[in-house]
Write a structure and sequence with these properties.
Layout: E1 3-7, H1 13-24, E2 27-30, H2 31-40, H3 44-54, H4 61-78, E3 84-87, H5 93-99, E4 107-112, H6 115-123, E5 125-128, E6 134-136, E7 152-153, H7 160-183, E8 187-191, H8 196-206
Parallel strand pairs: 1-3, 1-4, 2-3, 4-8
Antiparallel strand pairs: 5-6, 5-7
Helix pairs in contact: 1-8, 2-3, 4-5, 6-7
Bound molecules: adenosine monophosphate.
The site of adenosine monophosphate has 18 residues, from α2 and α3.
Length: 208
């Protein structure tokens, strides 16, 4: 089973991707995560990527599409999984069209959330530097990860200006992707404002 998770910032797609990956034995592909890994290597490309991410812009399609293609090929070759979850890809129509040339997608899930709720969630979001687990500082007060003990930190691109830009980009470029998958019958909608466990059970229902 191959899935695409779409949603505005903070809609919970990363958290749901981790839960679904474990439950269905799927590989979790987060292009944002792969880009941040490249950034950490401090290569020429990594430095360019960091500038774009930290101001809330998308990286060029040729980079994100190539990363997604390479990762999908690796996963399919490894035969270790029952499929994969694309988290945050495709983010515009061009990426969606390119993806359809090398991937067979079974379901696309759109986690809905208002802009206001998105903003509220992002300002309180921290991520484990080691395993990528996501917490809300409103509910989790510790400085280290419950799962692996890694340090929790705010993402560099979770600043107000970058978040506003990402929200705008979502409406302008990613919403047409939602329409694209609605037209070809793959789209499922899940209300992202509920608790993690409710969103998770609603998601499993739409996958049945
Ligand atoms: P995310 O971790 O999904 O929130 O992504 C963080 C950032 O990585 C985004 O704000 C973009 O700058 C970049 N990014 C992630 N996915 C894509 C994509 N599909 N296309 C272009 N840029 C992306």
């Amino acid at each position: 089973m191959n899935l695409i998770l779409i949603g505005i910032q903070g809609s919970g797609k990363g958290t749901q991707a981790q839960l679904l990956a474990k439950n269905y034995k799927l590989a979790h592909i987060s292009i944002g995560e792969l880009l941040r890994e490249e950034e950490e290597k401090k290569t020429w490309l990594g430095k360019k990527i960091a500038i774009l991410i930290n101001k809330g812009s998308l990286v060029p399609d040729r980079i994100s599409v190539a990363m997604a293609k390479k990762k999908i090929e690796e996963i399919e070759k490894s035969k270790k999984y029952n499929g994969y979850i694309l988290d945050g890809f495709p983010r515009n129509l061009n990426q969606a069209k390119k993806l359809s040339k090398f991937a067979k997608i079974d379901h696309v899930i759109n986690f809905t959330l208002t802009d206001k709720e998105s903003m509220n969630r992002i300002v309180s979001r921290v991520e484990c530097a080691k395993c990528g687990s996501i917490y809300s500082t409103l509910k989790y007060k510790k400085k280290t990860c419950q799962k692996c003990g890694g340090i929790l930190k705010r993402r560099a691109d979770d600043n107000d200006a970058a978040v506003m830009k990402r929200i705008k980009t979502f409406h302008a470029l990613t919403e047409p992707v939602v329409e694209f998958y609605k037209k070809n019958g793959l789209l499922k909608v899940v209300d992202g404002k509920n608790s993690i466990s409710k969103v998770y059970s609603d998601t499993k229902k739409v996958l049945k």
